[in-house]
Amino acid sequence: MFSVLVLTVIGSGLALAKIERLQDRAPGIAELTWEHPHAVGDRYFTQEKLLSSLHEKQGQRDRRQSSSQPQQSGKFEFLDGYHYGLIHYSGSESEVIFVLTFNTDRYGYPTATNLYKSADYGRSFENIEAQLNPEEPDPLLWRSFYVSPGNLNMLVFASFETSRIYYTLNEGQLWDHHDFDPPTINPRSMKFSPTEDNWILAHDPTNERIYVSTNLGQSWKMIAENVDQSSDYQWDEPGWDSDGSVIYFNQFDPEDRDRGNYTVSLFTQRYPFGAETQQEFDPNLGRHEDFFLLGPYIFAQKTEDNDDTHLLVSYNRQPFQAAQIPTPYDHRSYIVSHIEERQALVIVQHEGGFYNLYLSEETGVYFSLSLRDLVVDYAIDLERIDGVNGTMIANQYVRDTPDVTDAPIRTLLTLDNGGNWELIHPPDLDVYGNPVNCEPPLCSLHFDMDTSAYARLGVFSTESAPGIIIAHGTLGDTLSSNPDLYISRDGGVTWHETLSGSYGANVLDHGGIIVAVNDYHQVSSTVLKYSCNEGLSWNSFTFTDSAMVIYGVITEPGEHTTNVSLYGIESSGSRNWVVVTVDFDPIFSRDCGDDDYYDWLPWDDRSDTDCILGSSIVIERRNITTCCRNGRDYVRETQYSICECNEEDFECDYGYAKPGEDLSGLCVKDPDVELEDPCDNEGTTTYIASTGYRKIAGDVCQGGDERLYAPYEAECCRTPTEPPTTATNTAPTTTTSSSTSSKWLSSETPTTTPTSSSGGKK
């Protein structure tokens, strides 16, 4: 039996560290590889040229760099042996870290807890339980703690056993508490307002009520009944409500529940909260099972008496509309993956147990198929790449039977928000410099992601290091075992095999340093590896004298500092958490200057332009041939310019799809979707016909080939006119008289061609 640590970021400054006791689990040692052209300044270097350039400059770089090693700045052992931990970095140039360790019973309730604080970036910790509760002789049980999103120095700890809230306004320098008022409430979950630091929502499952406090828990007001534990409640998101004080919640009818007809209705309340401000959000929505609020969208799932399941969408807080998802298969459930600019990505579980990914246009109503047979289990193998707009990596089942259970898996990449997917190009050389015999489509690079049995790093990226992606993968026609560690420096277009085996990894100093250490799939270790050139070469550092099994490589969210904390257990047999903090600042001899940076352009290898989603983006990057300090206050310069439109700026319109497993084919009429014929409407003489394409939501291109793919006006009672063409175009020819543009959501037939959006990037 051994321990496994699972790490998940769960909000601003808060990281979740969960240890599960697993029995007889295979160690899962894996192996991987590296890759292709790299953009450095003017254009692309092949890997061979890049390494040659690196070696030529190695001597002078070594002479001007400090020869110092990183320093182990602290080591601390949590002597309680608890299995779970919550870690919070205060951020905002603070060195304060809180760690809550705890055990739970089989129902998930805490049986023992300890609260620790570090004021020096994890070099040392102090148990501060007594500071919170000096008058109570018995230790308290903390289920969790809550952090104000507007003030990371403000923390709230709730002790449900003593009906008391403990809080600090200054990172634990001073603590105070409030008894629950009224004392009869017993909330089990809380949510801070995103705009008002002192406003908190709380839900009590014992009496199925929601309470609100506007004075940091000093007093509470009951605002809604009949809200059970399975029903969600949410603050509205900033920017979508005029005053930021709207609450959304599902409420059930107790009489219906008594009759076994359990459904809920969606209500809202505004400040000052209470029945006098409550109203049903959209009476036409009626009974439903669940809702989810994200950006401009509210999604609701509804099941009819015949067990047909439907997705409904509210856009910009307008009334709900039924989502139009083109498929002949029944729906079983929905997962809202995430939203990009003016687009929703929804995963649908179909009858038969398989999952497809669908993309919407701006309103979230009209969806098109993006990817069939997405790998979904207890997690989802779909990863949005931070720092590069429109890039995602996904795992797909490759099946020739209805059953996906034993189907092999392949990994795909999209650079345009899921409009087009492609295999991932293998590297030219392996980690030892030997040529790689792997050519798509018969052979490509595949990654272990979140559903992997080995629960590795997943696909790692961060806004602070745009272009850098780290993942474990294998080469072949599909994913296999024994992956190695790969790095992409250019947002996923090319890859490089960087280390053999299984590692936990993170970045520091805005991507200036990459840290990797053997994770729990390997033998215990005393050594970590670090790279100052984005993984082209590695140095080793002994971070501890006694070997450790590492479960987490954690740094402050934002990756601005040079400190990393390694969480694990010592291989001597102790089951206490140990954290070792390593400071990499000594490896720098100087701060970076203007000459240490170059302009990098994210690019799409399917295009001969440097454009992604209709814009050319120039991002400042540090040269890989220098190892200088970016610094905590470094602000990366980014410039945008609008591109002309081409084929890569468009995806299949509603009612169209790429046939079969063809990743690069034309969008053709989907036989499973029956579109209305606008000419059936009496008096209609012209209508807007689709070319089978629509501009990808969030794409800002202008001109160019846009008119070849845009909807066009056609006449009824005759063959529709051909879409506009030019002498040199290769425009798609999949027009049909029974298609309307997905921009038109009303029942009225448009009589003019819609104008394409040309808004700028954020």
UniProtKB/TrEMBL annotation:
Residues 104-715 form the VPS10 domain. Residues 1-17 form the signal peptide. Residues 55-74, 720-762 are annotated as: Disordered. SMART domains: VPS10. InterPro entries: Sortilin_C, Sortilin_N, VPS10, VPS10-sortilin, WD40/YVTN_repeat-like_dom_sf. Keywords: Glycoprotein, Membrane, Receptor, Repeat, Signal. GO terms for biological process: post-Golgi vesicle-mediated transport. GO terms for cellular component: Golgi apparatus; membrane. Residues 55-65 have a biased composition (Basic and acidic residues). Residues 724-762 have a biased composition (Low complexity). It is found in: Membrane. It comes from the Eukaryota. PANTHER family: SORTILIN RELATED, SORTILIN-RELATED RECEPTOR. This is Sortilin-related receptor. It comes from Geodia barretti. The lineage of its organism: Eukaryota, Metazoa, Porifera, Demospongiae, Heteroscleromorpha.
